[in-house]
Structure formats: structure tokens, C-alpha cells
Amino acid sequence: VPEILEVEAARQVLEARALHRPIDSVFTPDTWFLKRGTTAEALRDALDGRQFVAARRRGKLMLVDVDDGGVLGLHLGMSGRVVVDGDAAGDPLVYASNRPEAAWHRFGLAFVDSGQFFLRDPRRLGGVELEPDESRLGPDALSLTRAQLDRALAARRAPVKAVLMDQARIAGLGNLLADEALWRAGIDPARPAVAVDANERAALHRAIRSTLRTLGRRGGSHTGDLPRSLDEPCPRDGAALRRTKVGGRTTYWCPAHQR
DNA sequence: GATGACCTGTGA
DNA sequence: TCACAGGTCATC
Q: What pLDDT, on a 0 to 100 scale, did the predictor assign at position A78?
């Protein structure tokens, strides 16, 4: 599942392989995939004959800068993948097939040098837009400071996990990373965010950093230590894990050490 | 703040 | 055959 680690890997592929290549044509086979009023014509106008000069990211949103100052926003949804010149970028996704089905190409570009870029997304939950509004996103999880975490959690009575996944408060954490970080920090995901004290927030901040660093090194959001199965015990203390819904999402946690 | 809808491949 | 996965948005 593309959470911030997979999106960062995809961004790096764009940065390494899609910049400074003049665009010959734009491929928009799926109008459902064009978000917030974006049209095929507007994409042609914005991209034809131009080239990308930078690939940035905020949370799970990729922002690709065009040489005339325009910005192309790319979102991978939950099964999206970036393909440049035929190679699938990023780590294999647990829940999504990596077959090179042309029918899953929801958006694409042909470069003048005859190379191609595609956004391949079987489940069509990703999207493309022009001039995305970055202000809808909170601070990026990969560079999250302790002060930013405190600000995100302050005065929120929602479950701490729901706040971690709220992209307007912290950008980049999804279901798997939030579960892993809370498990590492020893915090019950359903606790109101406002009830998480300063010591616990410090532990949570360290846990977010270690989760991103460790899972990033291992290869993605799905490489965490917390099993996403009730058949396995908590690796930390051997207790039986629980599966509940928190913030509307399936949540695995350990009732013995997460409090 | 919580819930359901969107979408479709996967596996029980 | 059908529940489930889950990022995001609309709606309650």
C-alpha cells in the first residue's frame, strides 16, 4: 500500500528518470482519474512540449514542477505505481498486483525521446490534478518535529491513531505506519489524542522516526514488526493481539503493552 | 468526529 | 460468492 515510504520511492524514480525530458504527448484514457476539475485538455495545454524540472513530495502527494512554473500533482491512492520506460518503480505492493496490465494505465506521458511515463493503478483510487493545493496537507511525516507532533495532537479528542492518519494534521502516515508507530510507542490507538501526555508524545515521536527509518530501509510500509494477523502473538511480549476498528480502519494492537 | 461511498483485485 | 483491503472525499 502506498504510504509515505512508497510515495517517496516513486518520487525518487521520477527525479532520477523523468526530469528534463521534453514531453511529446499526454495520455488520459480515464477521465475518472482526473481530479478537482482537471481536464484532458488542460493537461495537454500544461504539459505538451514542456518538461519536468523537479519532483517534490508532501505526504502522499507528489508534486512535479513543470519548466514554466506549473505543477502536476500525482496521487497513488492505494494501488498506484509509477512506471518510467517500462519499469515498475518502488517496492512491491502487498495488496496490489504488479502485472504490467496496459488497462491499468490511468494517466501517462510520451517523451520526445520515445520513453514513456505511466501511472498504473488497478483500483483507480489515485488521481492526477494541476496546481494541487498543498495547504490542505499538514507537515510531512518524514521530517516531523516533536513540536509539530505536539501541535497535531493538541486538543484533539479523536483517537490518537485517527489524528496520526489525518493528512491535514500530519501528511504521510497511513493505516500500517500508524499502527506500527503506536505499537512501538506502547500507546493504545483508541486513546484520545489530547490524553497522550508529554512523555508519551516523546516516545511516539521517536517511534514515528524509527518506524519510517527502519521500514524505509527494509523496503516499505508492509515490513513492520507488528503482525497484521491474529494468528501471531505480539513480538514484544507474546500477548494475543487484538483487531479493532479505530478511525474507521482495521487496527492491530497489543493490549498488554499499548496503554 | 464518525460513517459510508468510491473502486476492483485478491483470497477465503 | 463475497468480504475485505484502504486513501480520500462527501455527508451525516
A: 86
Sign, CA torsion A131/A132/A133/A139 = negative
3-state secondary structure of A257: coil
Let me know if A148 is exposed, middle or buried by CB neighbors in 10 A (0-12, 13-18, 19+): middle
Note the pTM of the prediction, 2 decimals: 0.94
- Containing A208, the helix (H) or strand (E) segment is helix A198-218
End-to-end CA separation in angstroms for chain A: 27
Q: Where are the beta strands (DSSP E) in A8-160?
A: 23-27, 52-58, 61-66, 71-75, 81-84, 87-88, 105-111, 116-120, 127-130
Residue whose cell numbers read 511525516? A141
Q: Which residues in range 128-187 of chain A are in contact with strand B, contact meaning CB within 7 A of any of its atoms?
A: 156-159, 162
Question: Looking at the predicted structure, is the pLDDT value of residue A98 above 80?
Answer: no
**Nearest Cα to Cα of residue A214 among A189, A239, A180, A249:** A180
Question: How does DSSP classify residue A94?
Answer: S
Question: In what helix (H) or strand (E) does residue A46 lie, and over which residues does it extend?
Answer: helix A40-47
pLDDT of residue A110: 97
Q: State the Cα–Cα distance between residues A182 and A190, nearest whole angstrom.
A: 10
Catalytic positions of A are: 2-3, 60, 249
- The residue type found at A196 is V
Bin A23: left if φ > 0, else alpha if -120 < ψ < 50, else beta: beta
- Across all strands, nucleotide nearest A192 (CA–C1'): B1
